Amino acid sequence: MAAIVCKNFDSADETRPFEDGKGRLDLLHTDRGPVGRAVFEPGWQWTQHLKPIAGTDSCQAAHTGYVVSGRMKIVMDDGDSVEAGPGDFITIAPGHDAWVLGDEACVFLDWVGFGDYAVPAGS
Protein backbone atom coordinates (compact mmCIF):
# COMPACT_ATOMS: atom_id res chain seq x y z
CA MET A 1 0.00 0.00 0.00
CA ALA A 2 1.29 3.44 -0.91
CA ALA A 3 2.16 5.79 1.94
CA ILE A 4 0.17 8.57 0.32
CA VAL A 5 -2.38 8.65 -2.48
CA CYS A 6 -3.90 11.72 -4.07
CA LYS A 7 -6.68 11.37 -6.63
CA ASN A 8 -9.20 13.83 -8.05
CA PHE A 9 -12.86 13.14 -8.81
CA ASP A 10 -12.58 15.37 -11.90
CA SER A 11 -10.37 12.65 -13.43
CA ALA A 12 -12.17 9.68 -11.85
CA ASP A 13 -11.14 6.09 -12.50
CA GLU A 14 -14.69 5.39 -13.67
CA THR A 15 -17.82 7.43 -14.42
CA ARG A 16 -21.31 5.89 -14.50
CA PRO A 17 -24.11 8.02 -15.99
CA PHE A 18 -27.68 7.96 -14.65
CA GLU A 19 -30.82 7.59 -16.81
CA ASP A 20 -32.02 10.63 -18.77
CA GLY A 21 -28.83 12.60 -18.08
CA LYS A 22 -29.96 13.26 -14.49
CA GLY A 23 -26.49 12.87 -13.04
CA ARG A 24 -23.50 10.61 -12.72
CA LEU A 25 -21.31 8.72 -10.32
CA ASP A 26 -17.56 9.45 -10.38
CA LEU A 27 -15.67 6.58 -8.77
CA LEU A 28 -12.13 6.41 -7.42
CA HIS A 29 -10.63 2.97 -6.89
CA THR A 30 -8.36 2.84 -3.84
CA ASP A 31 -6.48 0.16 -1.90
CA ARG A 32 -9.12 0.57 0.81
CA GLY A 33 -12.10 0.25 -1.54
CA PRO A 34 -14.06 2.52 -3.86
CA VAL A 35 -14.97 6.10 -3.00
CA GLY A 36 -17.67 7.83 -4.99
CA ARG A 37 -18.91 11.31 -5.76
CA ALA A 38 -22.45 11.34 -7.08
CA VAL A 39 -23.91 14.38 -8.79
CA PHE A 40 -27.70 14.14 -8.68
CA GLU A 41 -29.25 16.75 -10.99
CA PRO A 42 -32.49 18.61 -10.18
CA GLY A 43 -35.43 16.32 -10.95
CA TRP A 44 -33.43 13.15 -10.17
CA GLN A 45 -35.23 10.39 -8.25
CA TRP A 46 -33.88 6.92 -7.53
CA THR A 47 -37.11 5.17 -8.63
CA GLN A 48 -37.05 6.97 -11.98
CA HIS A 49 -33.35 7.21 -12.81
CA LEU A 50 -31.63 4.27 -11.10
CA LYS A 51 -34.36 1.65 -10.57
CA PRO A 52 -34.19 0.75 -14.29
CA ILE A 53 -30.42 0.23 -13.91
CA ALA A 54 -30.51 -1.60 -10.55
CA GLY A 55 -33.53 -3.78 -11.26
CA THR A 56 -34.78 -3.59 -7.63
CA ASP A 57 -37.85 -1.87 -6.18
CA SER A 58 -35.76 0.37 -3.90
CA CYS A 59 -32.08 1.16 -3.47
CA GLN A 60 -30.38 -1.83 -1.82
CA ALA A 61 -27.03 -0.11 -1.24
CA ALA A 62 -25.94 1.02 2.22
CA HIS A 63 -24.44 4.50 2.23
CA THR A 64 -22.06 6.34 4.53
CA GLY A 65 -21.40 9.78 3.21
CA TYR A 66 -21.36 13.54 3.23
CA VAL A 67 -23.55 16.05 1.39
CA VAL A 68 -21.33 18.65 -0.29
CA SER A 69 -24.11 20.72 -1.87
CA GLY A 70 -27.80 20.64 -2.71
CA ARG A 71 -30.58 18.90 -0.81
CA MET A 72 -31.99 15.39 -0.92
CA LYS A 73 -35.00 13.66 0.63
CA ILE A 74 -34.41 10.03 1.63
CA VAL A 75 -37.38 7.79 2.45
CA MET A 76 -36.89 4.30 3.84
CA ASP A 77 -39.15 1.45 2.72
CA ASP A 78 -40.82 1.60 6.18
CA GLY A 79 -41.65 5.31 5.71
CA ASP A 80 -38.94 6.80 7.95
CA SER A 81 -37.46 9.84 6.19
CA VAL A 82 -34.94 12.66 6.42
CA GLU A 83 -33.88 15.69 4.40
CA ALA A 84 -30.11 16.05 4.04
CA GLY A 85 -28.23 19.15 2.95
CA PRO A 86 -24.79 20.74 2.78
CA GLY A 87 -22.51 19.71 5.63
CA ASP A 88 -24.64 16.72 6.67
CA PHE A 89 -23.02 13.36 7.39
CA ILE A 90 -25.49 10.55 6.76
CA THR A 91 -25.75 6.78 6.95
CA ILE A 92 -28.55 5.07 5.05
CA ALA A 93 -29.46 1.39 5.31
CA PRO A 94 -30.51 -0.63 2.25
CA GLY A 95 -34.16 -0.26 1.25
CA HIS A 96 -34.83 3.38 0.39
CA ASP A 97 -35.85 5.86 -2.28
CA ALA A 98 -34.35 9.34 -2.62
CA TRP A 99 -34.81 12.46 -4.70
CA VAL A 100 -33.30 15.90 -5.18
CA LEU A 101 -35.10 18.81 -3.55
CA GLY A 102 -35.04 22.19 -5.26
CA ASP A 103 -33.24 23.39 -8.36
CA GLU A 104 -29.62 22.77 -7.29
CA ALA A 105 -27.71 19.55 -7.97
CA CYS A 106 -27.03 17.44 -4.89
CA VAL A 107 -23.39 16.37 -4.64
CA PHE A 108 -22.82 13.44 -2.29
CA LEU A 109 -19.56 11.70 -1.30
CA ASP A 110 -19.86 8.04 -0.21
CA TRP A 111 -17.21 5.74 1.26
CA VAL A 112 -19.37 2.60 1.46
CA GLY A 113 -22.20 2.20 -1.02
CA PHE A 114 -21.05 3.32 -4.44
CA GLY A 115 -18.85 0.40 -5.51
CA ASP A 116 -21.76 -1.41 -7.19
CA TYR A 117 -24.04 1.64 -7.53
CA ALA A 118 -25.54 2.36 -10.97
CA VAL A 119 -24.19 -0.91 -12.36
CA PRO A 120 -26.79 -2.55 -14.63
CA ALA A 121 -28.45 -5.61 -13.06
CA GLY A 122 -26.71 -8.80 -14.16
CA SER A 123 -23.38 -7.07 -14.89
TrEMBL record:
InterPro entries: Cupin_2, RmlC-like_jellyroll, RmlC_Cupin_sf. Residues 63-111 form the Cupin type-2 domain. This is Cupin. It holds the Pfam family Cupin_2.
